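Extended Data, panel c. Modelled sequence:
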Amino acid sequence: MNMLRLLLCITFWLLFISPVMAADPYHAPNNSWISINGTVVATSPATFDLDYGSGIVVVEMDGWGWYPETYSILVGDKVTVYGRVDADLYETTTIEARSVYVKDINTYYYANDADEEDADFATPTHYPDNGFQIRGRITNIDDREFTMDTGTKKIKVDTMQMFYNPLDDKGLQKLKIGDFVQVTGKLDINFFAKTEIVAEHVTTLIRDTVKKLK
């Protein structure tokens, strides 16, 4: 019985008391996929250094055609990186980024081989309490509302419940016609008007448009 109690205590400590360790790219196998959060502490034209809490790792973005022209990762940015670990025997371990989420501007960037825009984004994801998530491209903007084309239908999105206006010219997120977005919110079903989504979050999705040479 004492041994059983000891085992239960150890299990409880491992599950509930011991701190959750951050993903460590230096202990991940070469070519394995990893998702890691952290803060940018240094940048260069095609890489940035990510402090993930237990160390610093270089994130490579040299294959991203958008990187030098349209957005520069800034020191202090809070980001989430998804990519492949490059841990060759004679090289320093790095992460080849496939997507980077920049928290401050609520934006996902995708590498040119991610094909995020080619995915079946017209299929919505449902959550409890009438929650709803769907992706599409903005085709029209009217004050605090915009119309989104999902590929199979068009639906209106109301941003009035958001604590900021993503459609104005203030702040870091400035949505415009043509932007590809992911909307999370609730359906407002109206029998006398068109159904719309009351947005809680609108995330910009940007895919590198530079295609790889064949």
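Residues 117-206 form a domain with the OB fold (Dihydrolipoamide Acetyltransferase, E2P) fold (CATH 2.40.50.200). This feature is highlighted in the accompanying rendering.
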